[in-house]
Amino acid sequence: MSLAKNTACVCGSPHPVIGCPIPRFYDNGIVSTIGGMCAFMAVMGIGRFIYTALLPGMMQTYGFGEDVAGVMAAWNYAGYLVGVFAMRKERQGMRRYALMVASLFLSVATTAGMGLVNATEAMPALRFLGGAASGSCFVLCSSIVLANPFAIIRPVLCGRLYGAVGDGVALGGVIGGTFGAVGGPDAGVGGGAGLRDTLDSTSIL
């Protein structure tokens, strides 16, 4: 009996992959991996790391020092840890997919929000929520993509999935450097828009 016949479908139904109502082209693992890559680029590369490139400009514009920057970074890491632990036991099904989509949109909102607020007191809270969104999406998206047996038996797909984090960091650096030079810390709004466009591609998950 093949691996596909013994595995529940990635759509969350109890039916085997072969009997899944999702079109057959989804079964090869490539489409779901591409969707996962887009999600990782959005929430990890842009949502989590774009402000690394923007931070010097923000420190100069808002007049805060390394202590405040360190606090924001700490809250972001704390949020990431909370998100990972909160989603570690999510089971297969539509609820898991819905939570992943919600974490994507939360990442968009918090990334853009950093460029809209002027009060530095609100920034740690936004970075905490952004970190929670990143951690949640990382766990949920990984479990959704790797639930496809064809993604597991093709190591190159797993490598590309997690390699997308680095791709997103590079993309975030380009966006942050480009928008930051033009619009300063308000580039977070542009980063949020770019993140939104990126996550639109995750609908193929």
Share of residues in helices: over 70%
Number of strands: 0
**Mean pLDDT figure:** 76
Report Rg.
18 Å
Oligomer: single chain
Termini distance? 26 Å
Low-confidence stretches: 1-8, 10-23, 182-204
Number of helices: 8
State the major sheet: none
Order of helices and strands: HHHHHHHH
- Strand proportion: under 5%
State the shape: elongated
Give the class from helix and strand content and strand pairing.
mainly alpha
Write a brief structural summary.
The protein is mainly alpha-helical.
3D architecture notes:
The chain is an all-alpha fold. 71% of the residues lie in helices and 0% in strands. It has eight helices and no strands. The radius of gyration is 18 Å and the shape is elongated. The two termini are 26 Å apart. 43% of the residues are buried. The N terminus and C terminus are likely disordered.
List keywords for this structure.
disordered C terminus, 0% strand, 205 residues, 8 helices, mainly alpha
Per-chain topology:
Layout (H helix, E strand, L loop, with lengths): L29 H17 L3 H13 L3 H22 L6 H23 L6 H24 L2 H4 L2 H29 L3 H14 L5
